[in-house]
């Protein structure tokens, strides 16, 4: 398959499968509403940038209007009514068909990810394929878990006879507003959409500006499945700053699933009386004890800290090294860091441009602040536009912003500690609580400190990670509300309904 965009700078590749998304007259992508790819009545376009090509224009897409948001919610509600009456096994089959289309047509999605968010080629392909696997797993998981409920008899309660039989089962919420972030615009979209759909809901999706077209192509894989009601997956495009609040506060949203940064703190406050699932930022700490396997720890730190140029909420964002082994550990990390390739995503460089000039400026500010306050650069600071060479900053202290703020870039700070209490400080005094990891050969020590770490997850002898996607994934404090992961997302996107049979007289089962 070709590069994925043979039809000109922005036109989609992948033959006729993706061609309806693109308007050659405007040179922009359409939005998806009620099963149709349309241009917005606003006549306005949003353009995102290619981070690897000097932030030059990448793709154009619709700046949708509030009327179009209203229509999207109304259409989703109508589609949900149909979808909710389709048998679970048929819903599952349709989702599996969408997953298969995503596998067949993954190349243009990967190419869009390379262009929109500078995701290295292999990672971009992996995101598309991992997303298909997630959809498929959600379909199978939903078929099992959603078919079960509880039957409760009244006589277990003091003074009651067995004359009421209660059936408790899970029913859909209605319409789920799905808002994914730029760094996984496909995988963190389907991590919301697939559980929502198998649970019988419809979805209104607001893709990130950087990553928008990748998400639109993802939506086409659902749209093209025969039997999926038109409007079941609506995709409304536009800058979050312009239409985000309207979509969040909209009465048509019966649930909100958001992944992103501190924006989510405001979103959670604006949400109405609906279930919210928030996955926000992180400052994942990597604690390395004196007895740790330092090669294992160094490999995890480099992989965890620099994959996708550190633009992962689960990236290692601070190394907490015990003094006794700190020099040896830093030397190993430095050696591996210097071997990372830096360059273009299409060449599969390990370090590529961060998503925007503003992000690069923010990262640079954190490093400059640390150095000004006495930190030691183990690798030279080097930046070319959005491209920042992997940066290892040693001797970081609590007075530095880099100790507590999330760079969301290729920067790994190191603090040195003498005791477990000191180590825990760098975890539990953070406003974040997403993940953390611990390296030690002593399992009692590992479990002991893991139990005291105020995070959603602790990885023992491995780097922080959301995957595999069926694991529960959650943040505490400013890192989130609720739990993602396929099983927990399906659960969260349903509500309990009970039906009680009142018998004329008590009835007891015979042995
Ligand atoms: N915990 C986790 O699983 C993850 C956390 N993150 C965190 O997200 C940040 C980077 O991702 P990024 O996409 O920049 O995060 P943002 O919070 O800036 O954006 C996340 C999503 O929210 C949208 N948005 C923006 N403003 C509003 C609004 N007022 N109402 C509703 N939606 C809105 C954005 O759209 P638009 O792009 O148009 O602004 C985007 O789709 C980092 O802090 C990172 O740690 C990222 C990924 C996963
Ligand atoms: O938001 C993120 O950055 C992702 O949740 C991280 O997912 P990963 O750990 O599988 O890269």
**Main beta sheet: strand number and arrangement?**
7 strands, mixed
Helix content: 25-40%
Number of helical runs? 14
According to DSSP, the number of beta strands is: 28
Radius of gyration: 24 Å
Uncertain regions spanning at least 5 consecutive residues = 1-8
- Mean pLDDT across the residues is 97
Q: Can you say what the CATH homologous superfamily of the largest domain is?
A: Aldehyde Dehydrogenase, Chain A, domain 1
CATH fold-level name of the largest domain: Aldehyde Dehydrogenase, Chain A, domain 1
Structural class: alpha/beta
Tell me which CATH architecture of the largest domain applies here: 3-Layer(aba) Sandwich
Strand order of the largest sheet: 16-19-20-15-14-22-23
Beta-strand percentage range: 15-25%
Number of domains: 2
Bound molecules: NADPH dihydro-nicotinamide-adenine-dinucleotide phosphate, 3-phosphoglyceric acid
Large-scale geometry: globular
Report how far the terminal alpha carbons are from each other: 65 Å
| CATH class categorisation of the largest domain | Alpha Beta
Kindly describe this structure.
The structure is a single chain. With 511 residues, the protein is an alpha/beta fold. The protein has 2 domains: 5-280 and 484-492, 3-Layer(aba) Sandwich (Aldehyde Dehydrogenase, Chain A, domain 1); 285-460, Aldehyde Dehydrogenase, Chain A, domain 2 (3-Layer(aba) Sandwich), CATH 3.40.309. The chain is 36% helix and 22% strand. The protein contains 14 helices and 28 strands. The strands form 9 sheets. The chain has a 7-stranded mixed sheet with strand order 16-19-20-15-14-22-23, with helices on both faces. It has a 6-stranded mixed sheet with strand order 11-10-9-12-13-26, with helices on both faces. It has a 3-stranded antiparallel sheet with strand order 7-8-28. Strand 5 (45-50) and strand 6 form a beta hairpin. Helix 2 (88-104) packs antiparallel against helix 4 and helix 9 (294-306) crosses helix 10 (323-338). The longest helix has 25 residues, at 121-145. The chain starts with 21 loop residues before the first strand and ends in a 9-residue tail after the last strand. Residues 1-8 have low confidence and may be disordered. It binds NADPH dihydro-nicotinamide-adenine-dinucleotide phosphate and 3-phosphoglyceric acid.
